[in-house]
Amino acid sequence: RKEVEQDPGPFNVPEGATVAFNCTYSNSASQSFFWYRQDCRKEPKLLMSVYSSGNEDGRFTAQLNRASQYISLLIRDSKLSDSATYLCVVNGAGGTSYGKLTFGQGTILTVHP
Amino acid sequence: DGGITQSPKYLFRKEGQNVTLSCEQNLNHDAMYWYRQDPGQGLRLIYYSQIVNDFQKGDIAEGYSVSREKKESFPLTVTSAQKNPTAFYLCASSLEGLALYNEQFFGPGTRLTVL
Q1: Which of B22, B58, B80, B109 has its CA 20 to 30 A from that of A68?
Q2: What are B34-92's pLDDT values in tens digits?
Q3: What is the signed CA dihedral for B8, B81, A93, A63, rounded to 10 degrees?
């Protein structure tokens, strides 16, 4: 099993749609989680941090299910500008010290008019 | 403006040559990291440094070397021993290293192509 696994997509949705991405991780001891957004040929940018059961920021909601070892990202009312690759990132996924982040391969989202 | 800078943005190298990628941050972060990203893949950790004059190998350190002589700077050398160096290289920093809460912030990246 991969340390961090995401559905690569691509997800193609119309403007205004709600879309959800899931991410699973293998190390039950992992404590902190992040969603990054990466535009084409650019660096990843931090979208949300998830330390407890979840986090909400405007149209974006992240949820953590420790029992099932997955994190989800929900985007409501999708905008064209949400088109990007979304990276699921886990702190300590590899069973090593905290602080070493393990990145999923990313989920591609395209929002169309 | 606080941030992380990387240079150059694009770099072309002939096989057998060493090349050094620059990374500078003015965020006063203790920890710095180097990752590489290949098409369709997640980021993989090359080296990291938690504090000045100290650094550790990441998951794919072979063929790379680093130094951390100043807090602000963490250059990466891609040596001729690296078998497949063409990739997108990303530098990141965080307030402290190996912490439970470790939000990392990235520079704009250097795209290295070996000809």
Answers
A1: B58
A2: 999 998 788 999 999 999 999 999 999 999 999 999 999 999 999 988 889 999 999 99
A3: 30
